[in-house]
Amino acid sequence: MNDAEWLAGQFEGHRSHLRSVAYRMLGSLSEADDAVQEAWLRLSRSDAAEVRNLGGWLTTVVGRVCLDMLRSRTSRREDPLDVHVPDPIIGRADGPDPEQEALLADSVGLALQIVLDTLTPAERLAFVLHDMFAMPFDEIAPIVGRAPDAARQLASRARRRVQGTAPVPDADLNRQREVVDAFMAASRGGDFEALVAVLDPDIVLRADYGAAPFGVAKLVRGAEAVARQALMFSHLAQFARPALVNGALGLVNIQHGKLASVMGLTITDGKIVAMDILADPVRLAELDISDFLD
Questions:
Q1: What is the DSSP string of 24-41?
Q2: Residues paired with residue 216 on neighbouring β-strands, in sequence order
Q3: Exposure of 159 by Cβ count < 10 A (0-12 exposed, 13-18 middle, 19+ buried)?
Q4: How confident is the model at residue 158 (pLDDT cuts 50, 70, 90)?
Q5: What is the pairing mode between strands 240-245 and 90-92?
Q6: What's the predicted TM-score (pTM) here?
Q7: Nearest to residue 110, comparing CAs of 29, 228, 222, 227?
């Protein structure tokens, strides 16, 4: 084995971790892959023999790449009020395949990803690297160009935003499945009262249709309003099936062998407190649904 092959092998050992970091930073699977690939290119052009902690070095590189991507995204964002649902990570409800399992285990719910999107790039980096991946602030500080105490303050502000906005989901997947089954039965039966009963009074529904001409991004609040929205699409409920969406029970809608939508659900105390729907056909076409096709 030559040096290049050895280095490639070392990098592959860190790829899953780096992709998890990049996904939480960016909320985009394709951009996360781009960030990881850029880290490899920078490693291959560097003197790896001088790197004492390869994992830490690569995480720092990915953090810097993601920070630049977030800043570029912020500068070109045209409609800050639009609803954007991050790329979902989907797997079969009865267990993902081995390749998906690691990413699902490290994923965070769509509702939390959406809250992360509201943070400044520097806040997001400090929070993700410290709170989710335990990187010390003296290592985060050079990435954001701040002193360690300032990096700590960035993470603290982000933490307050997350704790005040992102709902904490129930951990029991069996309990989640009961709620999802009740929601599906009420939707298929057109039962308004049963729908309201399974929804939290303050539920928030976000629907991202992308640039498709048939719809626009939507934000709906309140159990009765969300139930009415669900009844409008009850004829599509027959195509929905349970799935793991970012590690929690959600729904995928597959029609004629194509993915029509992904619904991430956040279930707290037996009620659905958030629905995050991706129905952008361009982005859905990039998701692998082979596990769902019989």
A1: HHHS-HHHHHHHHHHHHH
A2: none
A3: middle
A4: very high
A5: antiparallel
A6: 0.85
A7: 29
Contact criterion met (CB below 8 Å) for 231 and 246: no
Q: What is the DSSP string of 127-193?
A: HIIIIIT---HHHHHHHHTS-HHHHHHHHHHHHHHHHHHSPPPPS-HHHHHHHHHHHHHHHHHT-HH
- The CATH class of 3-82+111-165 is mainly alpha
* Mean pLDDT, the chain, integer: 88
Ranges in the chain annotated CATH 3.10.450.50:
173-292
CA atoms within 13 A on the CB side of 94: 3
Which segments of the chain belong to CATH 1.20.140.160?
A: 3-82+111-165
Domain 173-292: top CATH class = alpha beta
Q: How far apart are CA 223 and CA 239, in angstroms?
A: 23
Give CA–CA dist 131/16, Å, rounded: 18
Q: Is 23 helix (H, G, I), strand (E, B) or coil?
A: helix
**pLDDT (tens digit per residue) in 160-192:** 999 888 788 888 888 999 999 999 999 999 999
Q: Among candidates 253, 254, 278, which has minimal Cα distance to 264?
A: 278
Sheet holding 90-92: strands in order across?
Answer: 90-92, 240-245, 248-255, 258-268, 271-278, 199-208, 218-221
